[in-house]
Design a protein that fits this description.
The chain has about 350 residues and is of the alpha/beta class. The protein is built from eleven helices and twelve strands. The chain has two domains: about 110 residues, Alpha-Beta Complex (Aspartate Aminotransferase, domain 1), CATH 3.90.1150.10; about 220 residues, Aspartate Aminotransferase, domain 2.
């Protein structure tokens, strides 16, 4: 480690991304990527970019992209923020709405970047325990003295709060920002919180193109909120990375939004595969938490580490989180039917 590393940076425990192997081919069910490619029109849109345009910076306002998003969701362009992946949108929210030493609240089992950002920006973090069934007790989030981050559906559990629960948290914290991270909402039967941004000025909704839209490699994220919240994020962006989304990603994003029927077709396929997988593995004796995401959270008679290790030996990657409350589980991305058939076969052998 460099002798010039600051004390604050050295105290941060970085986020650990899912394994991206190169040494051999695996059935890759460890990073919640979409198993289906984006529609052909996305590839065509990227190919149609003139070579000469690459010498020019992209649009720093992402105006065309934000316009199609606004039309799709029935909001105004000034209520939309465009980020380099949802992680950047989340990071800018931490930068924009906290001072060092402020308090932040989120579940004790949730997306790992919240804790990383809290440490990175010197915040006092309070992790609110999930209930014994791994659900959120909404009343735990009433009247807090800091801003709130909730992944909905939650990760890695896959469990989703109803829109009315999100609205209750908003009402009970009128002076606090509530950030709802909807990376997996498209795979849920619950409504998106985006419909509430005109009603509550303390709501910021974050989504991504990495999951339902098959663009994890393009790094596209979006935020929704009232114009003042979005202007605050823009202030951070223009102080940090004005040209934060490249031309290819913007073109791909616009084309993707215009292919909504294709997206919904693939979402439906993933949901159907998810439900079949849950039913089959439940009959085989595995416990699986209710899932509204493109993954399942599963435990069996072996430890989570053993399940992950045995699957990897057989060419299948899943994700294991070695913490006291999650060590018995593995998180498994929903792949194609063929992918899941191979997984089911191996797990039935282990049950």
């Amino acid at each position: 480690m460099s002798r010039f590393l600051s004390k604050s940076a050295s105290a941060v425990k970085p986020y650990t991304p899912g394994e991206q192997p190169r040494e051999r081919k695996y059935i890759k069910l460890n990073t919640n990527e979409n198993p289906y490619p984006p529609p052909p029109s996305v590839l065509a849109a990227v190919s149609d970019i003139r070579a000469g345009d690459f010498k020019l910076y992209p649009d720093p306002t992402s105006s065309d992209f934000r316009a199609v998003i606004a039309e799709q969701y029935g909001v105004k362009p000034e209520q939309v923020f465009a980020g380099c992946g949802s992680d950047e949108v989340l990071a800018f929210a931490f930068m924009a709405f906290f001072d060092r030493g402020d308090r932040v609240y989120y579940p004790d089992i949730t997306y790992g970047f919240y804790s990383v950002y809290a440490d990175l920006f010197g915040l006092l973090k309070t992790e609110i325990p999930l209930k014994s069934d791994y659900t959120i007790d909404v009343s735990d989030y009433f009247g807090l003295d800091g801003h709130i981050f909730i992944a909905n559906p939650n990760a890695p559990t896959g469990i989703c709060l109803a829109l009315q629960d999100i609205e209750q948290i908003l009402r009970e914290n009128p002076g606090r920002l509530v950030v709802v991270d909807e990376a997996y909402i498209d795979f849920s039967g619950e409504e998106s919180s985006v419909k509430l941004i005109g009603k509550y000025d303390n709501l910021l909704v974050v989504q991504t193109f990495s999951k339902s839209r098959s663009l994890a490699g393009m790094r596209l994220g979006i935020g929704f909120g009232n114009a003042e919240l979005i202007a605050a994020l823009e202030r951070i962006k223009f102080s940090f990375s004005p040209y934060n989304i490249d031309r290819a990603a913007l073109a791909a994003g616009i084309a993707s939004v215009k292919e909504d029927s294709y997206t919904h077709e693939k979402i439906t396929a993933i949901i159907n595969t998810r439900e079949r997988t849950i039913q089959t593995l439940s009959r085989a004796g595995y416990e699986i938490l209710p899932s509204d995401a493109n993954f399942i959270f599963l435990r069996g008679i072996l430890s989570g580490a053993e399940i992950a290790g045995r699957l990897k030996e057989n060419g299948i990657l899943v994700r294991h989180f070695d913490t006291p409350k999650t060590k018995d589980f593995v998180r498994i991305t929903i792949g194609t039917d063929e992918d899941m058939d191979a997984l089911i076969k191996r797990l039935e052998e282990l049950s």
